[in-house]
Write a structure and sequence with these properties.
With 236 residues, this protein is of the alpha+beta class. The protein is built from 6 helices and 14 strands. The protein folds into 2 domains: 5-82, 2-Layer Sandwich (Phosphorylase Kinase, domain 1); 85-221, ATP-grasp fold, B domain (D-amino Acid Aminotransferase, Chain A, domain 1, 2-Layer Sandwich). Bound molecules: thymidine-5'-phosphate (TMP) and aspartic acid.
Length: 236
């Protein structure tokens, strides 16, 4: 499978068309941004780690009944994925208060939530990805109520599977962001990535942050944290 044309370049990935109209190739970059692109940097090796970690976790989810866009990893940084149109929502699931939720509700970071919290943000950089609910989503025609229900069901199921999977690796899943896409026949599948860029992973013994918060908050050893996640999951 070969890249034909650059279709889209995002903050952390490039997407290329291929000779197959139903397949794209995603190419993961080492670039990192935070705060809607205000903070910029490079995390050497991040692209390869995120590619491999995301594919590993999505394959695990696929085996447990979650449909994903992953087709085949073709190099350290590149993966063939199913062509989808991305539903412009950031779907966030939270188990422990952290980040913007801790700030918004005045909760101390690390406070256990009595039940998982599901949030939707409308993907629009110019608006700063505002939080929306299922009424906004339906009213704006972003997705139908049925599609939102399917997305919510998948997101909460993924939270259970992923939390259980990470626990024996001493990784606590604090919160994470997902994106879903629609295939040409209208099926909703998991797209984008699941990586230290898009999840909060805390060491369940020491509480150490093993994710992009090390970059966002200038905590140091960003590369080391990404490597640690790959080592715990893939053994290398
Ligand atoms: P937040 O606490 O900043 O709202 O982040 C919630 C989760 O979503 C956290 O795991 C990081 C992830 N996230 C992204 O993947 N992309 C983003 O642009 C933001 C703001 C958060
Ligand atoms: N990637 C996002 C941005 O640049 C934010 C984040 O992950 O914190 O805006």
């Amino acid at each position: 499978m070969k890249k034909v044309e650059l279709l889209y370049e995002g903050k952390a990935k490039k997407v290329f068309t291929t000779e197959d109209p139903e397949l794209y190739i995603v190419d993961y970059k080492d670039d990192a941004t935070a705060f809607n692109g205000l903070k910029k940097g490079t995390i050497p090796g991040k692209g390869a780690i995120n590619n491999r970690v995301s594919n590993f976790l999505m394959k695990m989810l696929e085996e447990k009944g979650i449909p994903t866009h992953v087709v085949e990893e073709i190099s350290d940084r590149e993966t063939v994925v199913k062509k989808v149109s991305i539903v412009p929502l950031e779907v966030i699931v939270r188990n422990i208060a952290a980040g913007s939720l801790a700030k918004r509700l005045g909760l101390e970071e690390g406070t256990k939530l009595a039940c998982p919290v599901l949030e939707f943000c409308y993907k629009d950089d110019a608006l700063g990805d505002p939080m929306v609910n299922e009424y906004h989503i339906a009213a704006m025609g972003v997705a139908t109520k049925e599609e939102v229900a399917a997305i919510a069901g998948y997101a909460l199921k993924i939270n259970e599977i992923l939390s259980d999977y990470l626990r024996p690796h001493n990784i606590e899943l604090i919160d994470f962001k997902l994106e879903f896409g629609k295939t040409s026949d209208g099926t909703i599948i998991l797209a984008d990535e699941i990586s230290p860029d898009t999840c909060r992973f805390w060491d369940s013994v020491t509480g150490e942050k093993l994710d992009k918060d090390r970059f966002r908050r200038d905590l140091g050893n960003v590369q080391g944290a990404y490597h640690e996640i790959m080592k715990r999951l893939l053994g290398e």
